[in-house]
Amino acid sequence: MIRSSCVCRKKSLFNEYILYKNETVFKDYEGTIIGICERCKLLKTFPSKKNKKFDPSITKIQDYESRKKEFKRLFEPLVKTVQSYAPKKGSVLDVGCSSGILLALLKSKGFNVFGIEPNKKAYLAAKRKLKKNIYHGTLRSRIVKYHKTYDCIIYNHVLEHIPDINKEFVLIRKMLKKGGTLIVGTPNTDNIIFKIRKKYWESLLPNEHVWHFNTKYLMQYLYENKYEVVFLRFEDDERKQYPLIKKIYFNILSLLNKIFFTGEAVLIIAKKKE
Ligand SMILES: [Zn+2]
């Protein structure tokens, strides 16, 4: 058992859920434990002390920029979602905006865009793209210097990297307008591909992700924090590079995910109440 902080309580006990041991393929994760909270069942990463590669603040800017076209296409549904749930020309804040690809798309649709990014290189790339309203840091480091409320705040595959979720939600509440939209995209462990692949699940990324959420947990958490979930969308990894046989296998698993209304990633749209 590991004693550590959890979203449900300051300190909690975690039981071992996954252990990376004697790894041949995932050598980078050697000794890492994915623990499950005794109280709320949330999964959390515990890197081994020897593991120097664990870095939740990592931003793969090269990935984003070299696959810009692909990301633009992948972000299309998200852009459409923002258009449906945020007011026209409204203010949108992308927390962990990376090199600003999503913000540039939203800007082209007429939104007043803002971004925060802790990685210097990514921040500079976003600033080059968007020219203004891009900040270097995290929500925690910005709030003292920047008082404003937004129509929409986006955490697109960012929340699972943030160690203190409760503190983050206090800030989100301060910075989101009443009735404003909170958009959270994150890997979802409550899906058939994770259940089969466990530690080999591609979206687990234990050197980057502190938390491994599931949809039910997040919906409950949003409800407790006075948000109303208005929309859910599930997605599975395309696994474009995989050989045909593997692709067919994953397509079948994907189909099962669809039948059970789940997926490897979830996009949650919630409205702030009160
Ligand atoms: Zn917990």
TrEMBL record:
Alphabetical keyword list: Membrane, Transmembrane, Transmembrane helix
Pfam families noted in UniProt: Methyltransf_23 (PF13489)
Gene3D superfamilies found in the cross-reference section: Vaccinia Virus protein VP39
Origin superkingdom: Bacteria
Transmembrane segments: 248-270
The keyword Membrane is assigned to this record: yes
InterPro entries: SAM-dependent_MTases_sf (IPR029063)
UniProt protein name: Methyltransferase type 11 domain-containing protein
Native species: Candidatus Roizmanbacteria bacterium RIFOXYD1_FULL_38_12
